[in-house]
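Subject: Predicted fold for Polyhydroxyalkanoic acid system protein, 93 residues

User T.R. writes:
Posting the sequence so we have a shared reference for the thread.
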Amino acid sequence: MPDISITQPHSLSQTDARVAAQKVADKLAREYGLQCKWEGDVLRFARSGVEGALTLGERQAALRIQLGFLMSAFASTIEQKVAESMRKTFTVA
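User M.O. replies:
I've generated the structure tokens; pasting them so everyone works from the same file.
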């Protein structure tokens, strides 16, 4: 499976980072039909052909997505959209 890895620095508190991560998860769920579940500071998500995790650290959010064969055709588009969403979500205005 092709992998997408995105690391986004942030200066948010752990609580605010979790709220921001949930926004990213909600957007992924809407756009790609993903099921999401928190396990501590790791948000796991999956659907047929896609699985991954968003791990919250003290100063960064690390996203890893594994795409199946059919979804791999859209890897660059998915990576661009998700990276932009993370930049917007984890950057304090």
